[in-house]
Amino acid sequence: MSKKYEIFLFDLDGTITDSALGITNSVMYALKKFGIEETDRTKLYKFIGPPLTESFEKFYGFTKEQSLDGVKYYREYYHDKGIYENRVYDGLEEVLKKINEAGKQAIVATSKPEKYAKIIIDHFHLTQYFACVAGMEMDGGRGTKAQVITYALEKNDITDKSKVLMIGDREHDVVGAHENGLDCLGILYGFGSRKEFEEAGADYIRENVEDILQFV
């Protein structure tokens, strides 16, 4: 039997939506500004989930200053095109409906800028299912998943952390949840792996969108 929770924090990229096309196109656009031609899109999937500045530094050896420029270039493409190169995972809306019907609460907690996250959730007509959309600030504030989760909890006056489950597809979701004293469900339909979740210490690992309902 899976433990039941009252409040569900959902990561966005790789958990609610398959955003691979928009994110990788935006990264390719940014890298070109530095004279880097990246043709293997799958190599850029590691950019999905973690904060962008961290990924530019980790995967391409950028300095902090270069990483900030990389984010600026990324957003040039993402703001107009990449944000819409995106789709909701099959069955996810039905899961959100059932969470709502059960009288429970869903909240978005993403490392994506809150401004963009709200546009995406609204674009796919999912706003009605979420009590709140929490993300990072455009200037880089709330730059870690842990900080976003803290913000989401405070904004919604959530104090009983035993009732909250973080749902995400990368190790950052697990680490951020645990830093806030929350349990975390790692889902495998996104961009993370079982090995990644096991090493990060995920409380649960599940395969499919519908498996989320085991915890409702």
Automatic annotation (TrEMBL):
It is an enzyme of class 3 (hydrolase). InterPro entries: HAD-like_hydrolase_sf (IPR050155), HAD-like_sf (IPR036412), HAD_2 (IPR041492), HAD_sf (IPR023214), PGP-like_dom2 (IPR023198). GO terms for molecular function: 5'-nucleotidase activity; protein tyrosine kinase activity. Keywords: Hydrolase. Pfam families: HAD_2 (PF13419). Its EC number is 3.1.3.5. GO terms for cellular component: cytosol. The keyword Hydrolase applies. This is 5'-nucleotidase. It comes from Dorea formicigenerans.
